[in-house]
Amino acid sequence: MSLEVTTQDCSALTEIQIEEMLGIEGAFGLEQFQKAAQDWVLCTLARLDGKLHGVTFSTLERIGGTPCVLIGLMTIKRTTKRDTILKGLMGEAYHRALMAFPDEDVVVGSRFASPDGVEALKALTEMIPRSGHKAVGEERAWGRRLARRFGVDSTYDEQSFVVASGGQSGFLDFESSKPEKISPDIVSLFKTVNAKKGGVLIVHGWTMAESLVKLGKHS
Description:
Strand content: 25-35%
Number of strands: 10
Distance between the termini: 16 Å
Number of helices: 6
Helix content: 25-40%
């Protein structure tokens, strides 16, 4: 099994590459992939033995001076190797962040339509929202900033971090192979998310500079 993860500018994507993404058979169609290619800067492709198994559309940017990794859209093929693909895509995101923002703490954020994908952010410090924690002003402010950046602030609730509807132009699409092992604390965060109406939860957290060195190290 050979995993290859590569990143390129979205502007360099070809029609053939975008059409190939349909083979992942996840939550997104051709129009959503085409829109993501216009909305985001970087596209990361994960191939297993030459076949496309996962894709991420993202950007590295500063919001109010703070370095951020924004995952606009990620989708992973539902196979027995899905965890390996998720790890590879996130490892590449952290590596890019390390190269762009050495010696800095970095915010990582994305949208989620179900609890499964939150696994992607398990390495972060102080994930917001989280069960049993009442978000303070600055944490809620980050939720608002991300909602604006994702273009979903019109139906966003800053207390719950939930976008009520119309929030699924892109999100982190990952289906767990062991849903019964997802933490009840994570599941509880989604009790007011109406995925059928396009609802999502905006989740963010920090990776400290010393942690990013380890997370972003290519083996």
